[in-house]
Automatic annotation (TrEMBL):
This is Peptidase family M48. The keyword Signal applies. Residues 1-21 form the signal peptide. Keywords: Signal. It comes from Kordiimonas lacus. The lineage of its organism: Bacteria, Pseudomonadati, Pseudomonadota, Alphaproteobacteria, Kordiimonadales.
Length: 260
């Protein structure tokens, strides 16, 4: 029966895009029984469903060339996407929404961490967290940053079992660090200190020169007024000067996971 299922699975898989067409079946995910294949995905591990709605997992072999990755955690993480409904049509629709990818990745990390905790696989979780910590605050394509994932996994483990605090992460702790992120990334607007003449063409004042009109009476020589050098100062930038922001986004600093 299993041989028949494997054959059917490979037939369906061959009907998938080229990225999965050359995938080789290697077994079943021990966390949820989903068939696992190895193939060039170009983006690590993938949890998805075939045209018939059957779940599967494909893992790029390059993912395990980096020994900082835990194979157990990767399998548990991809299984979590199936268990949490992320591979359903509704799950895919939610993933495309703002913050959808971030939310699903953190949820899958949490599920995987607790699954490994049940197996006392503390070393694997420790390895994953240290790997994420090394990636810092960088994030892209909607994915959470390394620090976000490390802190999320730690909190999930601690919430699942408070007794693991001493056995898990003996070399890691939450510490305060100063914030170096400016509150206003584009800078602060301050009153402009650069002054210039308000009217570059001069000021117009009532004409002070008397002339005679055609009737012999007195009148201003310049009916529209005299132009004299402007004596009024005005800022060069009325809306203010833009200067580098000196305000920290988080005055109290960051709570970061530090591992030694």
């Amino acid at each position: 029966m299993r041989t028949l299922f494997i054959s059917l699975f490979m037939m369906v898989l061959c009907g998938q895009p080229d990225a999965f067409a050359q995938a080789m079946f290697v077994g079943y995910d021990d966390f949820c029984g989903v068939p696992v294949s190895v193939g060039n995905t170009g983006r690590g591990a993938i949890a998805d469903r075939d045209a018939a709605g059957n779940p599967f997992i494909v893992i790029d072999p390059d993912m395990f060339s980096n020994w900082t990755n835990s194979r157990l955690f990767v399998l548990a993480h991809e299984c979590a996407h199936h268990r949490l409904g992320h591979t359903t049509n509704l799950g895919k629709m939610n993933r495309s929404s703002p913050w959808g990818t971030r939310s699903q990745e953190l949820a899958a990390d949490c599920w995987a961490a607790k699954a490994l905790l049940d197996r006392k696989a503390y070393f694997d979780v420790d390895r994953v967290v240290r790997n994420h910590v090394s990636k810092g605050h960088y994030s892209s394509d909607g994915y959470p940053s390394g620090f976000e994932r490390a802190q999320n996994i730690s909190m999930c483990v601690f919430e699942a079992d408070l007794n693991v605090r001493d056995s898990f992460y003996s070399g890691c702790s939450m510490q305060n660090s100063s914030c170096n992120h400016a509150l206003h990334a584009r800078g602060d607007v301050m009153h402009c200190r650069h002054m210039r003449q308000a009217h570059l063409n001069g000021d117009v004042i009532p004409c002070q020169h008397a002339c005679r009109n055609i009737y012999g009476g007195a009148q201003a020589c310049h009916p529209r007024g005299d132009i004299v050098p402007c004596q009024h100062a005005a800022p060069v930038h009325p809306s203010g000067d833009l200067v580098p922001c000196q305000h920290a986004a988080h005055p109290g600093g960051h709570r970061d996971l530090v591992c030694r």
